[in-house]
Input
Amino acid sequence: MNQLKKYTIIGTLFVLITGTLSHFIYRWSGNNFIVGFFCPVNESTWEHMKLVFFPMLLYSIFMYKSLNEKHPYILSSLSIGILMGTFLIPAIFYTYTGILGYNIFILDIAVFALSVLLAFYSIYKLTLSHKITSCIPLFCIVIFIIMACFMIFTYYPPQIGLFAVPAS
Output
């Protein structure tokens, strides 16, 4: 198995496991203020985007440092993967709940897993394609802005649907 494929599979498992665990860490920490910046503090769609964003960001740093010399396009691929995985959460969630009119717990879990799988599949394919390089600064800025938004909106969320806790 080639090194990129190995890191991609490990990364997928890492994000699935750490993302799942991070769903509970805020509560386990006694609602620690700092932990809330990185882990969901409620059941809103926005907070669930953290399940993908922060574990992928952490693993991407490791993956970049490990594979950059052999795969010079990996930073762009990782950036796109982080953004894709993060924003697939609301895209898929609101699509299926818009069709059904309500959310189903098992489908919510499937949304998370599918978002992670598609993000890492894209990272793998984009890294091999050697087609994306010129947008690295833009991707990094967007990731930094999203990270800042997670920090701010965790405790000061705008009054729009993305930040509301869905009705069960």
In short: The mean pLDDT is 93.
